[in-house]
Amino acid sequence: MTDVHTNPERLWSRHMDMAEVGATPAGGSNRQALSDDDKAGRDLFIGWAERAGCSIELDGVGNLFARRPGTDPGAPPVVLGSHLDTQPTGGRFDGVYGVLSGLEVVEAINDHGVQTRAPVEVAVWTNEEGSRFAVSMMGSSVWAGVLPLDEVRAITDRSGISVGDELDRLGWAGTAAFGKPLRAYLELHIEQGPILEASGSSIGVVTGVQGIRWFGVTIDGFPAHAGTTPMDHRHDPARPLAEVLNGLYEMAAAHAPLVRLTPAMFASEPVSPNTVPDQISFTIDMRHPDANALDDMEATLRSLVAGAAEAHDCGHRVEVINDCPPVVFDDECVKAVESAAQRCGFAHERIGSGAGHDACHVALKAPAGMIFVPCQDGLSHNEAESITPDAAGRGAEVLLHAALELAGTAS
Ligand SMILES: [Zn+2]
To answer: Which end of the chain offers a freer environment for a tag, N or C, measured as fewer CB atoms within 10 Å?
Structure first.
């Protein structure tokens, strides 16, 4: 099947057409989830998919599946996809690239008169970005049973409009089953980081996604006058805060280079410059590909907070507010991507994903894998996000050949 190819010009021109929907003045895209622009982008995609002979299905949270039948109607499909929604100042490729490349695979199969044994479907997951409705990878989390549909329908945006309201208004609350059996799921995505560009590889064979754990930390002090209270008479939560941060950065250095540690959202109460704070709270975003390392780091965080707070007569609380375990992608999918890159003659390397993707949720239910292509300066979630037409073409070609291997071909 090495004589089957994608059409890079068609793939590129569709990106440019899609970028017209919700175009921003700085050359990016603004198609926030479940907005009129998100619908216009999907409608453009549906038109192309239907002209390519696909049938369209929606599930209850608006995830869309465009299906090209295989020769074995009972075979579970190979699904290729990503998302069409964007950040408010998003780029032209994040998510869009995986969806339009999935469609390009269908078109290439059509162009070359190939019959696949398993059906091939292109998935468009609802609200991957989580910027308007603040839960990212929302559609795939409902599909995989991570979040219940009624809980997700009740989530509101800043103006009080709910996910459920918008799904009903747009006619996106469909009836397709959640979590149906899949032969495999492949998501092609821009890397959103600098590794492939630096190493000169055209293709990243993604082996997994690092785990993410978020903590809310609160240190309780005792409010007192900043001018009259001697330093040794205070219960000042800023003192343990300083020790905890120092300790955490030392811990991060000990777990280098795979760890990511981000303390943020510092807030003190009361909001006053001349009162010793009653309370200081902050968040910690901790990431690592190894669950044991995350456990070790959580234990260190808890003992640092407890030790420093007690040493300065302060109270303390550490809560886990988000926990996404590391994902290890399916070996067969990883190898299918790797051998497709090999057959295509593209420089490739194995790589872990620093960001979460819909594939993390799909991997809970089905064999899943991902393919990365380099993006300029590793930039993403930015209107200047950019990939070259050649890079886009190479990724789609690997997606095609990996999909054909997994779907099987009937001669
Ligand atoms: Zn994305």
So the answer is: C
